[in-house]
């Protein structure tokens, strides 16, 4: 399509980035502006690995692709990447309507007077885009209606926002904050549609006899039933809660199939052959006609109820087993998603970057003038180091105790991380000797950074909430992880540590997703990162004692070491 044929009224699907580039070349723009916009389009095409003619100029489709890109992994700083996005947005505006950015146009006098009265920065940021949209459209505060918000939500689709729905929900929260904080703020309410597909009924929606039968089963699972006893060994509360959800989901599936909830009076009603098939069929239909591992596990849980709680005969159990075998997906070992994440570690530079991450973070923590935030970065460094050298579940990591779990076998300074069987989900004891560099990093954290987060009476390696309330408020708004303490963070803790890797060491593509779903229910590192690459690496590290043989990967600050003090460079390089 030639530049002359590009029209702002044409359907979006007709345009590619090549058409946008043609529009840039023919537009009346300063030479430098034209050059920056064209360069941004070419950079996006290179990042996506496709020619300009094959990249649709659709803001929503483009934003999804850009959201999956970690700028550090492609050698682009975060600031430069933001500029590229801004230039791309401005370029798309040449061929189709685009909503201005949050700071692209000024506020009207009336909106500006209200906005300046807000003391909360999050509230200011949350309403800023809407207020500027209203100012550009000539809509004053007294003229705002529900239709104004509907129009604004539609315009969010003409942006490169990663998640327009989330941005609109943020506006609703900030709008309510502004109404309570500023006198004269428009009283109109913001309706945020609930996009969650709620279909699972509460247990109380079923007869009391069904509820009692479920509670009896839960008591057996948890070991609270002293007469019947547990099925095998007692399960943890989180497992009981999941079994509760599975039962409610299956019973709700039968209701969606037309079954009257009042007729489901016991767990036996769920495992009758016809009901078993009908419930599973609905669950499969909800997944696009394909069975999933979650559906298969749910069916196996119901069979366990039939065997251990209802004591059904062998013929009935065999028929249930036959149905379950047809549900099996054939998936064994790592999923494709996890294999994709691990594949990045086949590159030696990526592997070195991951192994160097704890030392990088510790160096950054030492240079951070904000003491609490620096302590948090050191905390992340220690957590990642422990997971690399001693794979364990997040729940075990967050509960490590200086006296009970960090064992010093002798005067040499060596440290073992030991967790007794009763503290491990699978009842297998953990005993990991740490190599000297790991010990050095942990000791530095304990001596230099941990006192900033906890009183001397605390023995937790990662302090608990009551001990870090003051620092918690400081770190909530700006640090890239959810508010500490660590026990609250779970997978977010590791997620954010890897997020820092994408901006510090730069080589790992989509570093924010490297660890995947880390939760109490899955030993994330043992299942993903440490198998097989890092487990071999761990053995090598411990046997040789050589951690420094991993080549240092420079950060942006390391490019010009003369700009920092010699002590800072030394700390970053060698944990001095």
Task: Tell me about this structure.
The protein has 576 residues and is mainly alpha-helical. The chain has 4 domains: 3-92, no CATH class; 109-181, no CATH class; 203-327; 337-574, no CATH class. The protein has helices at 17-26, 31-48, 59-67, 78-92, 109-115, 121-137, 146-156, 164-181, 208-222, 237-256, 273-286, 293-309, 314-327, 336-343, 348-367, 371-389, 394-398, 436-449, 469-475, 486-489, 491-504, 524-527, 530-544, 566-574; strands at 406-407, 416-419, 430-433. The chain has a 3-stranded antiparallel β-sheet with strand order 1-2-3, with no helix packed on it. β1 and β2 (416-419) form a beta hairpin. α10 packs across α11. The chain starts with 16 loop residues before the first helix and ends with a helix.
What is the domain tally?
Answer: 4
Q: From N to C, what is the helix and strand string?
A: HHHHHHHHHHHHHHHHHEEEHHHHHHH
Shape descriptor reads globular
Main sheet: which strands, in order across? 1-2-3
Number of helices: 24
Helical proportion?
Answer: 40-55%
Q: What Rg do the Cα atoms give?
A: 28 Å
Biggest sheet record:
3 strands, antiparallel
Structural class: mainly alpha
